[in-house]
Amino acid sequence: MNRIDRLRQLYGWVDERLDLESGKSFLGKAFPAEDSFLLGEVALFCFLLLVLSGVFLGFFFEPSTSEVEYDGSVAEYQGEELPESFVSVLNITYDVPFGMLIRRMHHWAAHLMVASMALHMLRVFFTGAYRNPREPNWLVGTGLAGVTMFAAYTGYALPFDEFASTAVGIGYNVTLSVPLVGETIAHLAFGGSFPSSATIPRFYFLHVLVLPAIIAGLIGVHMLILVRQKHTEAQRDADVPAPDLHRRDEREDGAAADGGAVARDDDSVVVGLPAFPNQVAVSAVVFFLTLATLSLLAGFLPVHNIAEYGPNDPASTPSLIMPDWFLMWGYGFLKLTPSWLSFDVLGIHISAEFIGGLALPGVVFGLVALWPFIDYEDSAVHFTADPLERPFQTGVGVAGVVFIMLASIAGMDVIVADIVGMTTAQLKPYLTAALLVGPLIAGLVVYAGLGGFDDDEPPDDEPTARTEGDE
Prior knowledge:
Layout lengths: L2 H16 L11 E2 L7 H20 L8 E3 L11 E3 H11 L4 H28 L8 H23 L4 H15 L5 H9 L8 H30 L19 E4 L4 E3 L10 E2 L2 E2 H26 L5 H4 L18 H9 L6 E3 L2 E3 L1 H23 L16 H21 L1 H8 L3 H26 L22
Antiparallel strand pairs: 1-7, 2-3, 4-5, 4-6, 8-9
């Protein structure tokens, strides 16, 4: 028996038990050859690299605040009694072979994952790819973005240095401000009054098990929905003739057909690359490009320097405290919410800290999640839309982006105030006005620029252009 016969025998043995033949149809699933569609894959590969680098870091990290004597490479802390978690991160950074590189890769993978997810959602938003029947996947993606940012936040506390503990302490106070259940939630998440000996173990458990499991589950659901539904496509410029169909066509009924011309407006067929081997090869290139990008970032750009900030010291506060860029907008809400915006409703106290720290970010996420039901389509949509032909939706999207950017600038008010030569108190009214007026102006300018205020309608005897939702 030669090697090929052995492989066939092995395949037959596995097929009898797992019914591999029934899954062959998936290999012909069509993936549109659009570069922007690969942003989701970048996020997926970043998550994979986060898990792998996290496993490495987990071998050396000690989730404990117990005091131990430091005897590592950082001279200024030699012989001092320091929190064990702080010591373990120092050892990873300066004493474990490749520890600094892996720690940096873990850091930048988190940033790139959030960035690629944000760009992916913007692409979906501006092209209208969230419309019927893809609302469920938009909801899953919105939840995935929120959980990913919270997972990054839980990583803040783990080194237990002065910067991290101060930043996490702000989150603790915001959690306490939740009406009725704030104290209970804070006790569960932070292990009591922050900082306590239970805080680091709780956050470590959330960071390495609970939240990654939720993220993996949401990614799985996202992929299952994607496999079940057809991919969206950009509008075709013309009919696609048979000689140009160097791929398999994915039909609405799940059947695949090779060859055969596809009409420009035929939304029952996806024109694209088959999952195997074409899309697999593209995905492999994307993975290695992602790995190369993270390697370059880790090699040349430093990350949070815990040796500079030192271990947690409840008696002091760093002069400059700011979260990472993807949480900066929420910090901006917290800074701009006036302290007088506190009131009681039926004996329940609603604080300004709760409004700025949780309520406003919750409203933002809620509006994002509900948008497919606001911009609702009765009929199923296959083709993506041109943002230039959707004045209202594009104007709303631009206004939302400007809103988040201005809120992020407000989160950096200390830096901005230093640049313009003002105090943060003097700057606050200008930032508040910009946050309230700037997005409205940006949205209206885009809406007007795209002809949203034009009332011209085609004469009755001229047919209107076919839209993506028409059947």
